Amino acid sequence: MRVNPARSRIRVAAALSAAAALGLLAVAAVSGQTIIYSRGQNIAPVFEGWERNPDGTFSIWFGYMNRNMDEKPHIPVGPDNRLEPAPFDRGQPTYFQPRRNRYVFAAEVPADFGDREVVWTVTAHGKAESAYGSLRVDYIVDNLMKMMDTGGLGVTELEQKNQPPTVAVLGDARHTVRVGEALSLNATASDDGIPEPKAAASLWPGLATPIKDNSWGLRVAWLVYRGVGEEVTFDPEQFKTYPDYRGNSPWTPGWGPPPLPEDGRFPVTATFAEPGEYVLRVLAHHVG
Fold this sequence. Notes:
Blueprint: E1 6-13, E2 28-31, E3 34-37, E4 43-52, E5 58-66, E6 81-84, E7 99-109, E8 118-124, E9 127-133, H1 143-151, H2 157-160, E10 166-169, E11 174-178, E12 183-185, E13 187-190, E14 216-226, E15 232-235, E16 268-272, E17 276-287
Parallel strand pairs: 1-11
Antiparallel strand pairs: 1-17, 2-3, 4-5, 5-7, 6-8, 8-9, 10-13, 12-16, 14-17, 15-16
């Protein structure tokens, strides 16, 4: 189960730069009856559920399915990436990681929201899809439900005691840097140690790792949440936060969480190749 990730907003000052246009080719990989596309496919928003907040308001949770295995579309907030009713911008991502990404952001609605809906629409490669968030009683979620959704846990008594990890950005949340200038960032994270760490395994050699057999244990990664992610380089390189059975992902067979630093800090440098405004996230996760 993961927690709301911490964020850092970066403004990159304009500087002389060059851009190259790349042609994209859709590549299909066949495994049994499943066709997985490298790129060229659209994005399906997903309504994950809702929960009541202590002040009486509600949080309506959304995730998404990026149907591409490699392509990470950047879709700015606007007609092609909007929430309705207004405001269009409710904190949704504009840079979409591949495959299924759960509980990515929550749209807060007032206590008297009633039977209305929040609709998230994303258009990619000319195809629009929408997710309809509501307060229907059969969609209520809590930490236990999130844990079962993301990691298949919550069955045993010990698993039910599991608490989400904590994570926080250290220092200023907003920065301004020049193109090509390395920006030092740092975060702290901790966990209760439930469940015990283990590497991802596959029940069927050569096939995908089932959801409950991905890597367990605290893992922390920085990623681009808004902005053109291909223009951002992290050092050290960060592992993938989405399912990728081919390598460097908690779903890759044999992948285990890196050793935790003694001081609980996770520093990184980010370098930006193009000017613009970016939002980076640091994500603490320990299963699923």
